[in-house]
Amino acid sequence: MAKRKNELWEWTKALLIAVGLAVIIRYFLFAPIVVDGLSMMPTLHNGDRMIVNKLGKPNRFDIVVFHAPEKKDYIKRVIGLPGDKIEYKNDVLYINGKAYKEPYLDKYKKITQGPLTEDFTLKDLIGRDTVPKGEIFVMGDNRRQSKDSRIIGPVPLTKVIGDTKLIYWPMKDIRIVK
């Protein structure tokens, strides 16, 4: 009887440790997310399932997940970091006066007529020349159909859940995205 009790206790401990590790991993390190909508097309598709990395801070051009004002999580690309001056002119991104290529937009630029991204300066959108301290400027890759920082304003870093690079579902689309 004592041997059976000991075995039950060992199984209980193993189960508690497994559940504890799962909770720690899920809430502090990595979390799954489902892409909802078309704002990140063609890079991400509606229904793609991804892993969010909650460690580290976002870098320029990372794809991040954040808590949006509507009590919903959004997934967008980081365009501007704190202190950056952002401008779009003739469908070209300028950060701090330097032109940047956006290869993730090439597919859409080939099939759209006219500019994919309308001209703007940060001052036009938020009344400031630079991205505020502690915030990032994000945009969806589907520039014509994205509710992003051009509409909701810069995103506080405290609202960022993490960055994401790995699509794990559907199986045919498993890949690391850039």
From TrEMBL:
<feature type="active site">
    <location>
        <position position="76"/>
    </location>
</feature>
<dbReference type="GO" id="GO:0009003">
    <property type="term" value="F:signal peptidase activity"/>
</dbReference>
<dbReference type="InterPro" id="IPR019758">
    <property type="entry name" value="Pept_S26A_signal_pept_1_CS"/>
</dbReference>
<comment type="similarity">
    <text>Belongs to the peptidase S26 family.</text>
</comment>
<dbReference type="InterPro" id="IPR019757">
    <property type="entry name" value="Pept_S26A_signal_pept_1_Lys-AS"/>
</dbReference>
<keyword id="KW-0378">Hydrolase</keyword>
<keyword id="KW-0645">Protease</keyword>
<dbReference type="InterPro" id="IPR000223">
    <property type="entry name" value="Pept_S26A_signal_pept_1"/>
</dbReference>
<dbReference type="InterPro" id="IPR036286">
    <property type="entry name" value="LexA/Signal_pep-like_sf"/>
</dbReference>
<keyword id="KW-1133">Transmembrane helix</keyword>
<feature type="active site">
    <location>
        <position position="39"/>
    </location>
</feature>
<feature type="transmembrane region" description="Helical">
    <location>
        <begin position="14"/>
        <end position="35"/>
    </location>
</feature>
<dbReference type="GO" id="GO:0005886">
    <property type="term" value="C:plasma membrane"/>
</dbReference>
<feature type="domain" description="Peptidase S26">
    <location>
        <begin position="8"/>
        <end position="169"/>
    </location>
</feature>
<keyword id="KW-0812">Transmembrane</keyword>
<dbReference type="InterPro" id="IPR019756">
    <property type="entry name" value="Pept_S26A_signal_pept_1_Ser-AS"/>
</dbReference>
<dbReference type="GO" id="GO:0006465">
    <property type="term" value="P:signal peptide processing"/>
</dbReference>
<keyword id="KW-1003">Cell membrane</keyword>
<keyword id="KW-0472">Membrane</keyword>
<protein>
    <recommendedName>
        <fullName>Signal peptidase I</fullName>
        <ecNumber>3.4.21.89</ecNumber>
    </recommendedName>
</protein>
<dbReference type="Pfam" id="PF10502">
    <property type="entry name" value="Peptidase_S26"/>
</dbReference>
<dbReference type="InterPro" id="IPR019533">
    <property type="entry name" value="Peptidase_S26"/>
</dbReference>
<dbReference type="GO" id="GO:0004252">
    <property type="term" value="F:serine-type endopeptidase activity"/>
</dbReference>
